[in-house]
Amino acid sequence: MDTQGNKAAHVLVSEIKVAAARLQTSVLDRAIQVYGAKGLTPDTPLSYLWTWGRALRFIDGPDEVHLRGIARHELKKAKARHEG
Questions:
Q1: Does residue 1 register a pLDDT over 60?
Q2: What CATH number is given to the structural domain containing 15?
Protein backbone atom coordinates (compact mmCIF):
# COMPACT_ATOMS: atom_id res chain seq x y z
CA MET A 1 0.00 0.00 0.00
CA ASP A 2 2.87 2.36 0.71
CA THR A 3 4.34 2.12 -2.77
CA GLN A 4 1.36 1.31 -5.01
CA GLY A 5 -1.65 2.73 -3.19
CA ASN A 6 -4.94 1.23 -2.06
CA LYS A 7 -6.13 0.11 -5.52
CA ALA A 8 -3.15 -2.19 -6.06
CA ALA A 9 -3.41 -3.47 -2.50
CA HIS A 10 -7.10 -4.24 -3.03
CA VAL A 11 -6.28 -6.51 -5.96
CA LEU A 12 -3.51 -8.25 -4.03
CA VAL A 13 -5.82 -8.76 -1.05
CA SER A 14 -8.43 -10.30 -3.36
CA GLU A 15 -5.80 -12.63 -4.81
CA ILE A 16 -4.72 -13.70 -1.32
CA LYS A 17 -8.31 -14.26 -0.17
CA VAL A 18 -9.04 -16.56 -3.11
CA ALA A 19 -5.75 -18.47 -2.89
CA ALA A 20 -5.80 -18.89 0.89
CA ALA A 21 -9.41 -20.05 1.00
CA ARG A 22 -8.89 -22.56 -1.79
CA LEU A 23 -5.70 -23.87 -0.23
CA GLN A 24 -7.35 -24.25 3.17
CA THR A 25 -10.23 -26.22 1.67
CA SER A 26 -7.84 -28.37 -0.34
CA VAL A 27 -5.63 -29.18 2.66
CA LEU A 28 -8.61 -30.06 4.85
CA ASP A 29 -10.19 -32.16 2.09
CA ARG A 30 -6.96 -34.14 1.89
CA ALA A 31 -6.70 -34.49 5.67
CA ILE A 32 -10.29 -35.74 5.88
CA GLN A 33 -9.54 -38.20 3.09
CA VAL A 34 -6.47 -39.48 4.95
CA TYR A 35 -8.46 -39.99 8.16
CA GLY A 36 -11.32 -41.63 6.29
CA ALA A 37 -14.68 -41.72 8.07
CA LYS A 38 -13.02 -40.67 11.33
CA GLY A 39 -12.17 -37.32 9.71
CA LEU A 40 -15.87 -36.46 9.71
CA THR A 41 -16.48 -37.34 13.36
CA PRO A 42 -16.13 -35.11 16.43
CA ASP A 43 -12.99 -37.12 17.30
CA THR A 44 -10.96 -34.74 15.11
CA PRO A 45 -11.36 -31.00 14.50
CA LEU A 46 -11.30 -31.51 10.73
CA SER A 47 -15.02 -31.32 10.00
CA TYR A 48 -15.34 -28.23 12.20
CA LEU A 49 -12.39 -26.54 10.47
CA TRP A 50 -13.69 -27.47 7.02
CA THR A 51 -17.15 -26.07 7.80
CA TRP A 52 -15.81 -22.75 9.06
CA GLY A 53 -13.22 -22.55 6.31
CA ARG A 54 -15.90 -23.04 3.71
CA ALA A 55 -18.09 -20.39 5.35
CA LEU A 56 -15.19 -17.93 5.36
CA ARG A 57 -15.08 -18.13 1.57
CA PHE A 58 -18.41 -16.27 1.52
CA ILE A 59 -17.98 -13.76 4.33
CA ASP A 60 -16.23 -11.09 2.24
CA GLY A 61 -17.93 -12.12 -0.98
CA PRO A 62 -17.65 -15.35 -2.93
CA ASP A 63 -14.51 -16.22 -4.88
CA GLU A 64 -16.23 -15.18 -8.11
CA VAL A 65 -16.53 -11.57 -6.91
CA HIS A 66 -12.84 -11.43 -6.08
CA LEU A 67 -11.89 -13.15 -9.34
CA ARG A 68 -13.99 -10.68 -11.32
CA GLY A 69 -12.19 -7.76 -9.67
CA ILE A 70 -8.81 -9.34 -10.37
CA ALA A 71 -9.75 -9.97 -14.01
CA ARG A 72 -10.98 -6.41 -14.44
CA HIS A 73 -7.70 -5.08 -13.07
CA GLU A 74 -5.62 -7.34 -15.33
CA LEU A 75 -7.66 -6.40 -18.40
CA LYS A 76 -7.14 -2.69 -17.67
CA LYS A 77 -3.39 -3.27 -17.38
CA ALA A 78 -3.33 -5.21 -20.67
CA LYS A 79 -5.35 -2.52 -22.44
CA ALA A 80 -3.00 0.19 -21.17
CA ARG A 81 0.04 -1.77 -22.41
CA HIS A 82 -1.58 -2.33 -25.79
CA GLU A 83 -2.54 1.33 -26.24
CA GLY A 84 0.69 2.72 -24.81
A1: no
A2: 1.20.140.10
